[in-house]
Design goal:
Blueprint: H1 14-33, E1 37-38, E2 44-46, H2 47-54, H3 59-64, E3 67-69, E4 75-78, H4 83-92, H5 95-98, E5 103-111, E6 123-132, H6 137-153, E7 159-165, H7 172-184, H8 191-199, H9 227-242, E8 248-249, E9 261-269, E10 277-283, H10 287-290, E11 298-304, H11 305-314, E12 325-331, H12 337-350, E13 358-361, H13 369-378, E14 383-387, H14 389-393, E15 396-401, E16 407-411
Parallel strand pairs: 1-5, 7-8, 12-13, 12-14
Antiparallel strand pairs: 2-4, 3-4, 5-6, 6-11, 7-9, 9-10, 10-11, 14-15, 15-16
The structure holds adenosine-5'-triphosphate and magnesium ion.
């Protein structure tokens, strides 16, 4: 029987895995420099945590969650995103009360049952950051600038930052009402949107189905913001401008999760095809209270690692990859196996002339030298160090350069 990785998942190896590691390492360095601490939450949580906080009528909760029962009939879900898990951890460890730390970052696998396509998987990685306990619009600006800094550290330059304000519980109901009025007269709404019209009209703006497309006169939240929300959004924009962060105000931007309030944003790239959102986030001042914590305002974002890698790859990110030099240790005479073995152990531990950026293979016993060299070529070793009797008696080994096929002798004690 032939088994395959489940639909929407993939095996990651070679340059891609090195690329993802480098991308995450760069992001982590930036987060740490900005005062963020890393948190690792479990990959699965109680399903109710997500259904309650992300919103019953969102795509994630309606269609995309991997929910299962364990042997004790507990209803669990593979995490579809990181923000809610982090908020749960923040409350569980009483940090909402002590306020001892408030800037966190995470990176890890997320799971969503989506239709797989380029840049959209059922298992994917997100790198995210959250700041708790500040309601200042300066924190919104800080988060947006941070998302931009991480992406530009990867060399990604052709990005556009879309921002919007979704208002607060005071002003949003008026916007909802206007949306219901507008969409009630649109014919041919899809089945989901008909339901959204009743339960969650903001989600209509995010529908990808053609018959639900709206025209230019669709209501925009900016016309309904209350004075506080308007001032707030103005300050966010002012601070972004002062920091030379280019952005576009996009009155139709809504997010796929219900917990957002006020500022939301998305970072898009024109270089990665139709799945063009590399990162997204915003403010969520009610989430922590809603899931049982003390009232704690919060703002954060998540970068889609695979999409960011795709964009980075398009601007030569893979040229920065530090691929360790592969060294193969071979034996021309079988009785030198133990000497070659000890040598391989030594260079693995101490490197060659202090260079530890190497990857050591061999020796293999019971194979002819020709076969060993064939193997060395197959694994793309750049050098093969050959232990041969005549040279070894003079404390020397042969070094074969696998690319230009040249060969030289070198004193063992010089390695
Ligand atoms: P989209 O509109 O593309 O579905 P989203 O609004 O569902 O994105 P968020 O939940 O805000 O996305 O997640 C933040 C980022 O995570 C996205 O901007 C994207 O880069 C990435 N992402 C989301 N879903 C997937 C997926 N299924 N596969 C790969 N990356 C994803
Ligand atoms: Mg989505």
């Amino acid at each position: 029987m032939n088994y395959k990785a489940p639909r929407g998942t993939r095996d990651i190896f070679g340059e891609t895995v090195l690329g993802l590691n480098l991308l995450e390492q760069k992001a982590k360095e930036i987060f740490i420099r900005h005062g963020f601490d890393e948190v690792r939450t479990p990959i699965f949580e109680e399903a109710a945590l997500f259904t309650r906080s992300i919103g019953q009528t969102t795509n994630i909760v309606e269609k995309e969650m991997y929910i299962f029962e364990d042997k004790k009939k507990r209803k669990l879900a593979l995490r579809p995103e990181g923000t809610v898990s982090l908020a749960r951890a923040f409350i569980e460890h009483r940090m909402d009360v002590s306020r001892s730390a408030c800037k966190f970052f995470y990176s890890g696998e997320m799971f969503r049952y989506e239709r797989p396509q380029a840049g959209r998987y059922r298992q994917f990685r997100q790198i995210g950051a959250e700041i708790y306990a500040s309601s200042s619009p300066a924190t919104d600006a800080e988060i947006i600038i941070l998302a931009q800094e991480v992406l530009s550290s990867l060399g990604i330059d052709k990005i556009s930052i879309h921002i919007n304000s979704l208002g607060c519980e005071k002003c949003r109901p008026f916007f909802r009402e206007a949306l219901v009025k507008y969409f009630s007269s649109v014919k041919d709404l899809c089945e989901d949107c008909l339901r959204r019209l009743e339960k969650n009209p903001l989600r209509l703006l995010d529908c990808k189905i053609d018959s639900c497309k709206f025209t230019d006169d669709v209501p925009e939240m900016s016309d309904y913001l209350c004075c506080d929300c308007k001032d707030n959004f103005y300050i966010v924009q002012l601070l972004l401008k002062k920091a030379n962060c280019n952005f576009t105000v996009n009155g139709r931007l809504v997010r796929g999760l219900d917990y957002y309030t006020r500022t939301v944003f998305e970072v898009r790239s024109s270089t990665v095809g139709s799945q063009d959102a590399l990162a997204a986030g915003g403010r969520y001042d009610n989430l922590i209270k809603e899931i049982g914590g003390q009232n704690t305002p919060a703002v954060g974002f998540a970068i889609g690692a695979e999409r960011a890698l795709l964009a980075a790859q398009n601007v030569g990110f893979f040229e920065n990859l530090k691929i360790p030099e592969k060294i193969f240790v071979a034996i021309a005479d079988q009785e030198l196996f133990s000497e070659a073995f000890t040598f391989a152990v030594k260079i693995t531990k101490y490197g060659i002339n202090g260079n530890k950026d190497i990857s050591v293979f061999g020796p293999i016993n019971g194979k002819s030298l020709t076969n060993q060299l064939k193997f060395a070529a197959k694994i793309q070793a750049s050098k093969t160090i050959v232990f041969a009797k005549t040279e070894f008696e003079n404390d020397k080994v042969l070094i074969k350069n696998m690319k230009d096929k040249t060969q030289s002798e070198i004193d063992l004690n010089k390695l």
